Amino acid sequence: MTSPLERFYSVIPAGGIGSRLWPLSRADAPKFLHDLTGSGSTLLRATWDRLAPLSGEQRIMVVTGRAHRAAVETQLPDLADHNVVLESDPRDSSAAIGLAAAILVNREPDVIIGSFAADHVIRGDRLFRAAVTQAVATADAGYITAIGIQPTEPAIGFGYIHSGSPLDITGAESALLVDSFVEKPNLATAKKYVSGGAHLWNAGMFISRADVLLEELKRNQPELHAGLVELASVWDDPATRGPAVDRIWPTLTKIAIDYSVAEPAAAAGRLAVVPGHFDWDDVGDFASLAKLNSGGRKTDLAILGENARVLSDASSGIVVSQSNRVISLIGVKDIVVVDTPDALLVTTSANAQRVKSVVDALKLSGRDDVL
Amino acid sequence: MTSPLERFYSVIPAGGIGSRLWPLSRADAPKFLHDLTGSGSTLLRATWDRLAPLSGEQRIMVVTGRAHRAAVETQLPDLADHNVVLESDPRDSSAAIGLAAAILVNREPDVIIGSFAADHVIRGDRLFRAAVTQAVATADAGYITAIGIQPTEPAIGFGYIHSGSPLDITGAESALLVDSFVEKPNLATAKKYVSGGAHLWNAGMFISRADVLLEELKRNQPELHAGLVELASVWDDPATRGPAVDRIWPTLTKIAIDYSVAEPAAAAGRLAVVPGHFDWDDVGDFASLAKLNSGGRKTDLAILGENARVLSDASSGIVVSQSNRVISLIGVKDIVVVDTPDALLVTTSANAQRVKSVVDALKLSGRDDVL
Question: Can you cite a GO biological process for this protein (chains A, B) (predicted)?
Fold first, then answer.
């Protein structure tokens, strides 16, 4: 019998644009295609490099939009053709991850899959691998398994996982049963969570047997499940895949996997969590990006951009430069300046969450050229 | 005998870069070559158009740097060759205006000259002409004559002229003797000046007989005067002008005409002032520019730029756009954003005076490409 990790397959949904990072992130240059840490790697490539030692490069599937195929293949030259799943339009994470599960379970009935967003930043690869390895063992025992991040501060921008009793699983000493998911809390509640020790950040990483995931999905979203199973049944036949995608994909319910699988599984006592002690950030907005790039010091201006030429007396905030223009800041605090060839954003860290509203306004006013 | 106005000659020193308006103003695109009001005219062209009805187009002399000759001639196609005075390097206003005076007095001994900066904004042409006409009459009576602007607010960014007794000059009913010049005051003092009624803004406009001006200059700056007279004596001979410029110009003292002529003349009772009731602004920085372009409303974001595409919730400040990039501002107040093809400035109205320090820093760090 093979070990659980030998049956492990990584799935990378590479879908979201990251509108809160406009004008850096665009429809044709989504967040996962950017290097947001100055590491020299795009977030997608870094995700691949983190997973390859766990599942092997031949066992990483990427689910992405048709428009991004070329860019994804440039980033990941070793990505096998049969591991590319192209969406004709985005239909949220249940469809993306569910389809990957349905395709893989047909090829390999006892496969264990783990889904990892293409656009998060993780530091501490050894700790990451340790957590995933425990999660794979937990998944092999039949649990849908989240990796929950040990909170380092009372963040109000993340959802939390309330953990319960320890599970007694070989190779997964720190696995816990999940009591419930908690939506983004207020600051007072977040502080209680952090001091209490039972709450972990929900990083949206789920590891499970593919058949277990599909069973849970069938229970909660039977139509979505049926569509995915039908699509998967013809997927590996090039002659029938295309028409089936055209017919079925547009009918699939758009729903996050948190709601279609994770929360119902938690309520039914079928969800486990393995605490992760690595650094994790979903880089949700420019305030996060500033923090991520200021080396943790609140009094530094973060500068992102290979050819950035910044002249500044600003003591905080971030400059993202995609040009070689001289950027000069005088007497501004907590500023966010994002300088791209066709669009410029000026805001403050405190207003970073409102960037999405600009994207909405640009859509409404028909300025699709800069979206 | 000709009327004073028939002997009037306009002199436009077009020299200063306007460093406080960087990166809009540059060494090769100084302030006077910009349209700062959205009128469709550059400040230089507007100055010409304002003076032409007074002196006639054939009697406007422009003193500018060699580097700006082509741009100036494009702006002013009717500028006669013999009315162009080119400086090999900037040597401040005494040299520029003094040389114009020395050249013109040789051609026309009883000429009355008036000097008007190329980069100020004036609104109210009829009132401007009325003031200049009175100033020309006052100059004809032997006074060096300033046009002082009736203050509309207790500005602390301008110097003031303290006016004294009325002069009894035909055709110059509002001319007054000048008591003294006052440097930029603090706010309390400025408020007293405005309520007192005897103080006018010094707009740097001086009208006088050329010979009277040169006499005053000789008294206070004999070496500078001697150099200018020598230079002027060969000016109209193309064979000798060049070598004389190369030899003499670099030796001339750099001093503002306020110090070499106006202040000593005031102290000696030889300076008059005619109050001007037109709107005047020297557009010294982006805060002034914002005010000038917000229609006087403090709660409007001013936008300058033909192709500006601005999406903003900012309620004050200014955006200057020299590109057709989309510029988006979120949650920023009193912001100054100046977007040019190779340089970007982000600051606030309160920090507008500090822009010059950026230019100094860029010089020091050798980034002359954007100066």
Answer: GDP-mannose biosynthetic process
Q: Is B367 on the interface with A (CB under 8 A)?
A: yes
Shared domain check, B305 and B223 = no
Cβ within 8 Å, pair A332-B347: yes
Q: Do A347 and B337 touch (CB under 8 A)?
A: no
ipTM, two decimals, is: 0.88
> SS3 for B301?
strand
* Residues A215, A120 share a domain: yes
Of B330, B347, B351, the CB nearest to A355: B330
Whether B318 and B261 map to the same domain: the answer is no
Does A301 share its domain with A275?
no
Clarify whether residues A14 and A146 are in a common domain: yes
Q: How many CB atoms lie within 10 A of CB A325?
A: 22
Residues A336 and A271 reside in one and the same domain: no
Taking only the tens of pLDDT, chain B with its 371 residues reads 689 999 999 999 998 888 999 999 998 899 999 999 989 999 999 999 999 999 999 999 999 999 999 999 999 999 999 999 999 999 999 999 999 999 999 999 999 999 999 999 999 999 999 999 999 999 999 999 999 999 999 999 899 999 999 999 999 999 999 999 998 999 999 999 999 999 999 999 999 999 999 999 999 999 999 999 999 999 999 899 999 999 999 999 999 999 999 999 999 999 999 999 999 999 999 999 999 998 766 668 999 987 788 998 887 899 999 988 999 999 999 999 999 999 999 999 999 999 998 888 888 888 888 88
DSSP-assigned letters across all residues of B91-109: -HHHHHHHHHHHHHHHH-T
Q: How far apart are CA B132 and CA B53, in angstroms?
A: 11
CB contact (8 A) between residue B362 and residue A330: no
- Same structural domain for residues A223 and A344? no
CA of B344: which chain A residue's CA is closest? A327
Range of the domain at A20: 4-281
Across the A/B interface, how many CB contacts are shorter than 8 Å?
102
Determine whether the interchain pair A330/B351 forms a contact, defined as Cβ–Cβ distance below 8 Å: yes
Tokens of B68: 């700006």
Inter-chain residue contact A344 with B354, CB threshold 8 Å: no
Q: What is the CATH number of the domain that holds A192?
A: 3.90.550.10
Q: How many domains does chain B have?
A: 2
Which domain-ending residue is among A219, A249, A281?
A281
Stretch (H or E) spanning B73: helix B69-75
Which among A358, A338, A339, A336 has a CA at the least distance from the CA of A347? A336
Does A358 lie at the interface with B, CB-CB under 8 angstroms? yes
Q: Centre a 10 Å sphere on the Cβ of residue A173 and count the other Cβ atoms it contains.
A: 12
